[in-house]
Amino acid sequence: MGLIPKESMLSVENLEVVYNDVVLVLRGISLEVPNGSVVALLGANGAGKTTTLRAITGLLDIHDGEITKGRISWNGSEISHLDPAHRVKRGISQVMESRRIFAELSVDENLTAGGYIRKGNGKIRDRVFELFPRLEERRKSIAGYLSGGEQQMLAIGRAMMSEPKLLILDEPSLGLAPMLVQEVRDIITDINDAGTSVLLIEQNATMALSIADYGYIMETGKLVMDGKPEKLLADDDVREFYLGLGGGEDGGRRSFRDVKHYKRRKRWLS
Prior knowledge:
Blueprint: E1 8-19, E2 23-34, E3 38-42, H1 49-57, E4 65-74, E5 77-78, H2 84-90, E6 92-95, H3 107-114, H4 122-131, H5 133-137, H6 148-160, E7 166-170, H7 178-193, E8 197-202, H8 205-211, E9 214-219, E10 222-227, H9 229-234, H10 236-241, H11 256-259
Parallel strand pairs: 3-8, 3-9, 6-7, 7-8
Antiparallel strand pairs: 1-2, 1-4, 4-5, 9-10
Helix pairs in contact: 3-6
């Protein structure tokens, strides 16, 4: 795997993860998130993306998973042994897949929960409302009654309440209309421009690579390709399997019948 020419904030080295002492899910993956960068981790369902997130954030235990090999480092110090709360205090925050807000609480109460490790977080809340004006308009509303897009904004805003140095987003575009996907994309860019590094875990390669400084592609628990977005977007396999575009002269969109050959032909695994 290629190295990124910046100082790495997060470093994952040769990581293996097993569930229930039997199922090997991650098979020696290594990746880096440099300070100030947006890094995309792409892959289909079941590739191991969410397990990678759990390993980084310390949530493997509650899913009967454990790291059996490798290490995770944060600014040069190993954090593989730290519990999730201590990783949050170090500056790692996440937005889980499917939002996972506290549906029975108000918008304000959700944000308060996200900022529990920060005293006097009024300025942080103001910053969240700058990013998400709709949340300020609905701050007293019960979160479960928000639209899907508003709930995603709340999930991101809640994660930002801890003032993270690294924000990890798991499928933030999942289930959103194209216009809202664009809005989420722009918000991620704004967060990064303000100094927060981002690890973006996505199936939507078009959105992810449009804002990433570097990308990794995962298949069946292994990283099979990495590089700058221009390199990945120019690769025929990435274009076919993740963008739905053919590798021919017309570059046209492929039919499902063509794309299903994905399972039989993976040139990067040969």
